[in-house]
Amino acid sequence: MARKIRVLVGKAGLDGHDRGAKVVASAMRDAGFEVIYTGLHQTPEMIVQAAVQEDVDAVALSILSGAHMTLFPRVHELMKERGIADVLLTGGGIISKEDMATLQSQGVGQLFGPGTSTVAIVDYIRDWAAKHRGGKVPAAG
Amino acid sequence: MANGRTETATPKRPRDAASDGKARPAASEPAPRDPRFETLSGIPVQPLYTPADIAPDQEARVGRPGEFPFTRGLHPEMYRTRLWTMRQFAGFGTAEHTNQRFHYLLAQGMTGLSTAFDMPTLMGYDPDHPMALGEVGREGVAISSLEDMEILFRGIPLDQVTTSMTINAPAVVLLAMYIAVGEKQGIPPEKLGGTVQADMLKEFIAQKEWICPPRPSVRICVDMIEWCAKHMPKWNSISISGYHIREAGATAVQELAFTIADGIGYVEECRKRGMDVDEFAPRLSFFWDVHNDFFEEIAKFRAGRRIWATLMRDRFGAKNPRSWQLRTHAQTAGVSLTAQQPLNNVARVALQALAAVLGGTQSLHTNSMDETLALPTEEAATVALRTQQILAYESGVTATPDPLGGSYFIEALTDRVEAEALRYIHRIDEMGGIITAVERGYPQKEIADSAYRFQQQVEREERIIVGVNKFQSDEEVAIPVLKIDPEIERRQIERIRAVRAKRDAGAYSRAMTALRDACLSEKNLVPFVLDAVRAYATLGEISDVFREAYGVYREPAVF
Known about the structure:
By secondary structure, chain A is of the alpha/beta class. Chain A has helices spanning 19-30, 44-54, 68-81, 97-105, 118-132; strands at residues 6-11, 34-37, 58-63, 88-93, 111-112. Chain A is built from 5 helices and 5 strands, in the order E-H-E-H-E-H-E-H-E-H. In chain A, helix 1 (19-30) packs across helix 5 and helix 2 (44-54) packs across helix 3 (68-81). At the A-B interface, helix 1 and helix 3 of A face helix 3 and helix 17 of B.
């Protein structure tokens, strides 16, 4: 039986803006995902450690502090070091199109900016998991 | 769950208005365009307001401008005698960059300074701390020692401007640095005018930038209120802020309620220390968000003044009329701006700014159109300031105080917003006060629920956001965006290391030892922090003393 998609929603760095992270976490939960929310002010090491322990399918980082060009690459690098390069790294925040393209060229997944529908985020992770994680489907409701 | 809407006792009025005795539309009249017509807080809006919708003793309840309970504004003539302060929030990069922006904005006619600090500064870390990686100078200016503060205000005589500093957990450090810069310019504390935000309760509720747990954090806020009451008669020792509560997702009613509840919390803590309410209350100030729902926002400003005046006079026994006055700064709602079609934000900001002025604000920041993308460029910040100048000098709305006073709709909405906010305030009182409510996560959960509900409404297109879920455009409008040079972090690290190396080690260690001892006593910490700052102790070092004495706050991660 397929297990639920597990997602770690993480807040890295000093950024305290957690409205978006909580809204997205709630939407994922309502879409049937299992959501682990790290809480605020996590280091990249803490986030990757949690991703390993929780055996997640995806890590979704929320960064509105402008530190995304430091934090996404750092988390990505640590994920490779800890042997979870097959886990999706995605996220969102105040990130310019240009920076999104740069991060994606480095192997980070799709990133979402302000005004994104939560449906788009849920669909993206569900499709990714179907293709890359053995067709897991979230339980209904 | 309890929230702004579902706890509403009054049922929605029927749309045909027949049951409340008002004119029934002819059968052939079209159905309402919107099946709901309610404010952003979920307050239903009727098809018609008449004298029957306002209280019979309305004139006494509302009062006149400049008179208790100040519903219509704090001053008899409002903007006829003095315009609001145009105070644009600015800060990025190093102290040199922000000092240049300050000089530019003052040259453009801005009338007060407002400082945005970067994340490491807000959280009490020096730029070379591992947690500061990638964050230095990005969301505001990096201020790590008195040397940075001296550069920040270079060429700006502190007795000729007023300065607002958006700083909370390490507020006492920045206040001390400002006083020390004043000393170096030959200006004593009693001549310094401005505001330090220093509202830790709303940090735990919404903005989430903290160092220590709630109770020691509030103790340091109260130390500042007490010290400023004695030594800085022109200084606002706290800015009790609804802004961040609203931005985190609260409704207007929740913003009003939780902010006033925070205010009650600080007043109670000051009284526990034996201070007389009239000693400190005249220097308490507030800070509202101004969101999209035009009339509800105006009603919020009006209701806020009435609630506060009544509380201060009747609950806390304040005798000085200045203690009754809710003086407020306002800022247009950053969260309402869209990354899509960013030029549209100029229109949003203008409407929100108009609401703040019609609401009777004392000072105003207008957001720049590009703030969903990055910190504002100089051009975008100038348009934002010009928006205020157009309101002040072209629109005519400043010619008479509270021009909407007496409108059946505005007065009814003011009453309703007030009643709903008071319901929340009573619930918090019953919990044992705001500090206990915050420790239990009550306002935090209410806000998160409202934020999620709003997002669902947007996704169901029950709320329209132009350019986002309606009137979208495929064409991308590229506007210039401010870039922060990553070199800034390295330069700031070099500077702080140089400061540590060249300061008088003896004076530094004496001041730090005295501060450590004071933290464990009941002494007011302000003079000890001032000595540490004068000895060039860094922001991170002083914050570490607080961490050792009081511990570090960890929020339970709930959503």
